[in-house]
Design brief:
By secondary structure, the chain is an alpha/beta fold. The protein contains 18 helices and 27 strands. Helix 1 runs antiparallel to helix 2 and helix 7 runs antiparallel to helix 14. Bound molecules: 6-O-phosphono-alpha-D-glucopyranose (G6P).
């Protein structure tokens, strides 16, 4: 979605803004712009449609002068991508950038036009700039004009603005869209996302919904929008290093992030495994032993890839903690008045911690008295802030739009949660728990083996089958969500039509699709579902589908059925998804690479979906 950066300090602002915008490129955008104000108040504004290099070229040819500025990458919501619709927007001395959607934009537009505003763009954003400008003309000081204007807005926003009449301060505000302040030495930053600010500071302050803040070179103040009252928010130290958000020699972030999975898992497991006891240490889960025993149901709510992790998590919780569990798409859970209450645990799973549907669904569950546990990767993001407790994944920043390392980190977090619940509820045999914990500890090395050991074969298969128009992914049990994830990865980045299906449902529809042109990727590791999946594999073969099997090492039966077998180490069945998903991520990557698509920023997709 859109990205915001802002800077006020002693350095030239434009290069810092451009650098920040580049670090936000991964979020997906269609146009970009920066505004810098010179000390004497001269406004310099550059906006360009398309990729950032266009903006960069312009800034190279015509450098901007000034130590304060704001920048933006836009993902069109109101009005097509064009220079005039790109941010920043200007009204009188006000220059403003915005993420989110202002819901009452139609009423605002008519009211502003009636007052004689000259509105240049189709955006909802420009209206906010005019609103503030009118209030300045009525004689309000900047801060008050901003606060009063914000009171008139409905919807989700993160805003950064400045006035050419006061070129020493940036005002930012937040309601349901992320905004973080970066506290530097003699400099203040703001951004919609942590990676934009990482090279400059790791000291960050997260605004709450309904906050606005004034940033000056050496200080910042935070106030409530409704009362104007001053508030304090904790200063947090973010331990992600800027290098983590760079490609490090890989052709794409996605490929780098696939390779980072063993480390992401190691970091997510660190300090949480009690190997002797076969247990999980976790204060962070935020439940007492008695709470764990009192839970009656678990809801896992999420979107996209996080939903697929939740589908596996649902099996983990049911099978290991013997609790009824459902995984629901957050967009379907919210707004239907779900039956959920104080005896339920709602696990909100989200890489970014900012996805609007997951956030709203978690809020609705909390309002009904459910206990909300966040499983998120971004510390201090909106969902953990709303939740009663947060069990973080530690995958580091994920830049590729298609989630990979965060998915596997979510799987281990959910498995740890299930083990913890199972032990607290006395339904998980300690010997089995020890086996699981030992298995988890061995996992990073096995994942490394799978990445290194399968990538050549997978790349060859991608060359052979990459031109197929449709691909079918099949799996049962733990492998069913993995089939969904394999199909999602492929369609997201290579634009090939792909469907994931529970293998047992194949006969109820998808079998009609299978012919000699359709690759069928069957996920069939050794587990309790293995025999039945193998029957489905044979049925697909009988229809001349081109079978690629993901199987456990040394599985002769599968080798006899098809020549295209990708092997993964044999592990305790609960861990299979963490290994079988890797060749599918690589398959999607190599097919897309061969097609030359924009792998890290696939068309129309955004990394974090903060609008509805
Ligand atoms: C977007 C991303 C996906 C992600 C989904 C949920 O669609 O492109 O990769 O899985 O949002 O995001 P979350 O941050 O809540 O996990």
């Amino acid at each position: 979605m859109c990205g915001i950066v802002g800077y006020v300090g002693n350095e030239e602002a434009a290069p810092i803004l451009l650098d920040g915008l580049k670090r936000l490129e991964y979020r997906g955008y269609d146009s970009a712009g920066v505004a810098v104000v010179a000390p004497e108040g001269e406004l310099q504004l550059v906006r360009r449609v398309g990729k950032l290099f266009r903006l960069e070229q312009e800034l190279g040819a015509r450098p901007l002068r000034g130590r304060i500025g704001i920048g933006h990458t836009r993902w069109a919501t109101h009005g097509r991508p064009s220079e005039v619709n790109a941010h920043p927007h200007v009204a009188g001395p006000i220059v403003l950038v915005h993420n989110g959607i202002i819901e009452n934009h139609m009423a605002l537009r008519s009211a502003l036009l009636a007052r004689g505003a000259r509105i240049a763009s189709d955006t909802d954003t420009e209206l906010v700039a005019h609103l503030i400008h009118f209030k300045l003309r009525e004689g309000m000081v900047l801060e008050e004009a901003v606060r009063r204007s914000l009171l008139e807005l409905r919807g989700a926003y993160a805003i950064a603005l400045l006035s050419t009449e006061e070129p020493n301060r940036i005002v930012v505000a937040k309601s349901s869209s992320p905004l973080v302040i970066g506290v530097g030495e003699g400099a203040m930053f703001c951004g919609s996302d942590i990676p934009a600010l990482l090279p400059y500071t790791r000291r960050m302050v997260f605004l709450e919904d309904g906050d606005f803040a004034v940033l000056e070179r050496d200080a910042y103040r935070i106030h409530r929008i409704d009362t104007g009252e001053r508030v304090e928010r904790p200063l947090r130290y973010i331990d992600w290093s800027p290098v983590m958000a760079e490609k490090g020699g890989f052709k794409h972030f996605m490929l780098k992030e696939i390779h980072e999975q063993p480390r992401a898992i190691e970091d997510t497991l660190r300090g949480r495994l009690h190997r002797e006891e076969g247990d999980i240490y976790s204060e962070e889960i935020g439940l007492s032993e008695r709470d764990a025993q009192a839970i009656e149901r678990v809801f896992l709510i999420a979107c996209g890839t996080s939903h697929h992790a939740s589908l596996v998590g649902r099996y983990y919780i049911e099978m290991l903690a013997r609790l009824p569990a459902v995984a629901e798409l957050a967009s379907e859970f919210r707004g239907r008045d779900p039956i959920v209450g104080p005896r339920d645990l709602v696990v909100a799973v989200s890489q970014s911690g900012e996805t609007i549907d997951t956030l709203v669904a978690a809020r609705e569950a909390k309002e009904r008295g459910a206990r909300v546990l966040a499983v998120a990767n971004v510390i201090g993001s909106a969902i953990p802030r709303l939740a009663d407790a947060s069990f973080y994944t530690h995958a580091g920043p994920e830049i590729g739009v298609a989630s990979t390392k965060c998915f596997t980190a979510q799987l281990v977090a959910l498995l740890m949660l299930a083990i913890w619940l199972g032990r607290r509820r006395n339904v998980l045999d300690p010997i089995k728990a020890r086996e699981l914990v030992e298995g988890l500890a061995r996992l990073p090395l096995q994942m490394r083996d799978v990445i290194i050991g399968t990538k050549q074969l997978v790349s060859n298969l991608a060359k052979r089958h990459g031109n197929a128009r449709d691909v079918l992914f099949l799996g049962r049990g733990f492998s069913y969500p993995i089939a969904l994830e394999g199909a999602l990865k492929l369609k997201e980045i290579s634009y090939v039509h792909a469907e994931g299906y529970p293998a047992g449902e194949m006969k109820h529809g998808p079998i009609a699709l299978i012919d000699v042109n359709v690759p069928v990727i069957v996920i069939a590791p050794r587990d309790r579902w293995y025999e039945r999946t193998l029957s489905n594999l044979q049925e697909a073969m009988a229809r001349e589908g081109k079978i690629i099997a993901i199987a456990s090492e040394g599985d002769e039966a599968v080798h006899r059925l098809t020549q295209d077998v990708i092997e993964v180490p044999e592990v305790i069945e609960f861990l299979n998804p963490l290994l079988t998903v890797i060749p599918l991520q690589l398959y999607a990557y190599y097919v897309a690479d061969q097609k030359g698509t924009d792998i890290d920023q696939p068309r129309n997709l955004a990394k974090t979906v903060t609008v509805e």
